[in-house]
Amino acid sequence: MSQPLFRPLHPARQMVVVLFIAVGVWYLTWRLGTFNTAHPVFSRLLYGAEVFGFVTALLNVFMTWRLSERHAPPPAEGLKVDVFIPTYNEDVEMVRRTALAARVMEYPHQTWILDDGDRPAMREMAESLGVRYLARSENRDAKAGNLNHALPHSDADLIVTFDADHAPRRDFLLKTLGYFQDAQVAFVQTPQDFYNLDSFQNRTDSGRRVAWSEQSLFFRVIQRGKDVWNAAFYCGSCAVIRRSALDSIGGFATGTVTEDIHTSLRLHKRGYRSIYHCESLAYGVAPAKIEPFLKQRVRWGVGAMNVWRKEGILFTRGLTLAQRLNYLATALAYFDGWQKAFFYFAPVYVLMAGAMPIGVDTSSFLLHFLPYIMLNFLAFEEIARGYGRSLLIEQYNMARFASFAWSTLGLLRIRKRFGVTAKAQRERSASLAYLAPQLLVIALNGAAIPVGILLFHSMGHLPEDGMWANVFWASVNSALALMVVGFTRRRDGNRRQEYRFQLPVAARLGDVLGTVDDLSPHGLSFYGAIGDPRIGDRLPLRLYLPDGPLEGVFEVRSALTAEHDASRYTRAVGGAFYGLPIAEAQRIEQFLYGSNLQWELNRLREDSPTPLQRLGLVPRSKASPAVRYWSSCEITLADGKQGSWIGLAGTLARQDEFELLIGHRFEPAQWLRLAVHSRAGVRELHGKVVERDGLATGGGTLYRHRIRLTQAQAAVTSRAGMVLKTADNGSVL
Questions:
Q1: Which terminus of the chain has a lower count of CB atoms within 10 Å, N or C?
Q2: Which CATH architecture has domain 611-720?
């Protein structure tokens, strides 16, 4: 029942990969005869780094040649399910939001907060939500110990684990429990996604509708490839585990700092099956700054080395050959730090010491190297299925190379203290110390360029073409490091204490109907014909949420002004809720956390077209039309029947269609009358519902309707040049 469908590489991509492998073997064979005998150690180190890169590329091809494609079977009735949320020192508010989302998941279950900090505030919060609370007096074995401590208190058939920051969707259990009808399935893992799109690991460009993450390739491609070989591993959160399988291995694995991959390996050794369900069903908080980002990667790397040392990978009993290779690929990824370090500093040695690692002329080298490196790039882009984004990945390689290299020392050490990754938004932090490796790359490569040129002209210590090739190499290294430093400093500039969601919501501020975005449980931005409010003003606010209107008071903290026809006006105001009751704040939290509305409403994608897709050799996935502007509107039925609603109208590229977003469900073919509110006034539209889908949130369902205008109305709209939100250039609506 849980057997996946296999989706192999497209034939055009297969040809590219096969050609890359053939050219790679040809190039590395040729390179054996090109060592510079005057510098044998340096020459062999460079060749070793190249061979390492080719071997890891082959492992990636092996893992991702086919990807699993699963469709969730319906869950059986009567399963006992416990949801574990382990916490140590995370903020109580963060844990509360996760517990709030977990509590309302569909399918009978019990939610537990497992508090390793034994905090009274956490206990009070759990009691207020009506969820179970369990604390322990000692922090032995960290997260794994906390989970194991809870197992004797549970009689559930299945254990669901969420990190303290991961808020699940309401349908999480409905999409995962059905796989356990196969008695051999030990766990079901889902992707770990993160709602704070301004984190260090995210690259978001709303204009291009891109929301790529440093982990996109792993969760969208690599885990699906591992799933084909029954080698997808448990990631510690957003997963369901069979209790009897856990009991068979003595509970969650201890003795390493990464209980997740360690537990996975032990379950696979016992012959159990794993499932990777590639659908985002929970959303957490990614590290906002470079410091927690790198600390997290070091912990993962040290943990992988600990598991390798303690359990063995290649020669341990119970694993298939394919599983061994998959686990090996995961562990070897951290040795990439040493390879990258060599490549970042090699041109420095060449330019300053005059030590060429290649004993042939540059033209002959480039004749062999360029086809190999170009096919390497092309093959990576294609097996990554658009999630690779080579330039961005190279920047993250630069950011984490020292951390990866350091983490491999876990092979020499038995343990490393477990550390909880700091994920909360913070004001500007000092990141200079964590940029030391990149600053060293900039300093040494930057110094080597003029020194190398000077030595060439004064001493002729290098052949001219070799000198310029290494100047180019050093320049690329410096540019990559500068990109990382610049990006890190920009991320450090985040002064907000809490993430705000870029979501449109209909709202009424005072007596003005307008549009909210930049929303959090504590504040928002409001766009509309709001006159000229003063800082400190408190105005009545009504938010139109899927589960009904929310009443509150809004305190103006800032104003965004624009100019039109030589006069200035207030385009938007920002501020905070004033005296909002806890119950109403929780409604906002349930609406925001544990849903994919940011991606759905903003049409954000993680993937981008690959070179073969741009050439038309591989089909592209169909992109949904983007909504250019949103504006609040009043809706009535065109046939005159009673009823009125408040929603959002969004313009599409087509002049005769728009989207309607509302908590009410209209039926296809229904005729609607809309009064759209903008700065230019109120504009009336008539249209027919032609399509509808639902977007689940923790606070009810939003219905997205596609509306087709009547022909006459579409013509009027086109002549009027209707826009539904202030343009970025400040033009009036």
A1: N
A2: Beta Barrel (2.40)
